[in-house]
Amino acid sequence: MSDSILDQVIQHPEVIYTLAQELVAEREQLEGIRKQLDAAQPKADYTFEEGDSL
User: Fold this and answer.
1) Which of 1, 19, 47, 49 has the greatest number of beta carbons closer than 10 A?
2) pTM to 2 decimals?
3) 2 to each of 14, 25, 30, how far by Cα in Å?
């Protein structure tokens, strides 16, 4: 955490709640992106192998 965020938390403890919500949302977004990548990976591997045999 940056010093400015820590200063905000000291001055306004409710900032922790907002920060936690943002972190949870970011984690959920990242998990969704990872699932999309995992789903696309076999297609990418197949395309690469198919193109490699030419």
Assistant:
1) 19
2) 0.58
3) 17, 20, 22
Residue 7 phi, psi dihedral angles, 5° rounding:
-65, -40
- Provide the sign of the torsion angle of the four alpha carbons 42, 48, 52, 54, taken in this order: positive
Are 8 and 15 a contacting pair, CB within 8 Å?
Answer: yes
CB 9 within 8 A of CB 15: yes
Chain segment 3-49, per-residue pLDDT in tens: 888 898 899 989 899 999 999 999 999 999 999 988 888 776 666 56
- Look up residue 20 and give its two tokens: 């936690």
